[in-house]
């Protein structure tokens, strides 16, 4: 029997549409590939056009159906535009939203400045929350929606020099439960993966 991720026939995402933020590197890149390998059509975004183009070319060569565009998710108007573009691409339905893009800074709590606050809380929490709001009607329209927050063990337990990051991910974990309860009636599952560095 083939391994999961190698095309195991018991698992399929054929016919599914997925938006994965921050798919050009790291965990997001792996999620895009795994979803595509299981047959999903995937849309992704990042801030670097060159890196995005290289990834899209690589995925095309592998036979994956992946599209993408540049978007700075920390800018609200760019998030609006992204969802508009994605829903046009997916014909008004999104099955899966993965809030993966994130950022961090490691410092003692006494060292964080006013300027540090917004990029971390904005990219990790505000962006993800807003994308859920924007995607909600399209996840609902799919009849079978799923949101996955890529969170962190740092949002569950105290890890050194990561208090702001921990706050952003802890908030994400909290909101996962709220949205799961609010949107169960719309057939939208909401989960968080608490990744370990
Ligand atoms: N790796 C770990 O050990 C670990 C552990 C716990 C939790 N996590 C969480 O897992 C997620 C992914 O982590 P990773 O280590 O794989 O990250 P990564 O390698 O740094 O990749 C981050 C991805 O997000 C994109 N991105 C970042 N900020 C963005 C923005 N403002 N707008 C659009 N795209 C943006 C990046 O592209 P551009 O920079 O080109 O925009 C890149 O594609 C994050 O939420 C992180 O907090 C990771």
Q: In terms of structural class, how would the helical and strand content be classed? A: alpha/beta
Give the SSE string. Answer: EHEHEHEHEHE
CATH superfamily: NAD(P)-binding Rossmann-like Domain
- On the 0-100 scale, what is the average pLDDT? 95
* Assembly of the depicted chains: single chain
Total strands: 6
Please tally the helical runs, counting DSSP H or I stretches of 4 or more residues.
5
CATH class: Alpha Beta
Look up the CATH topology.
Rossmann fold
Main sheet properties: 6 strands, parallel
Query: How many structural domains?
Result: 1
* Strand composition percent: 15-25%
**Coarse shape:** globular
Q: CATH architecture, please?
A: 3-Layer(aba) Sandwich
What labels would you give this structure?
197 residues, Rossmann fold, 45% helix, globular, binds NADP nicotinamide-adenine-dinucleotide phosphate, alpha/beta
Furnish the topology, listing elements before pairings.
Elements: E1 17-21, H1 26-37, E2 41-46, H2 49-61, E3 66-70, H3 76-89, E4 96-99, H4 114-142, E5 145-152, H5 163-183, E6 188-195
This protein binds NADP nicotinamide-adenine-dinucleotide phosphate.
Residues 22, 24-28, 45-48, 51, 71-74, 100-103, 123, 150, 152, 195, 197 line the site of NADP nicotinamide-adenine-dinucleotide phosphate.
Organism: Fraxinus pennsylvanica
Transmembrane segments: 147-167
Family: Belongs to the short-chain dehydrogenases/reductases (SDR) family.
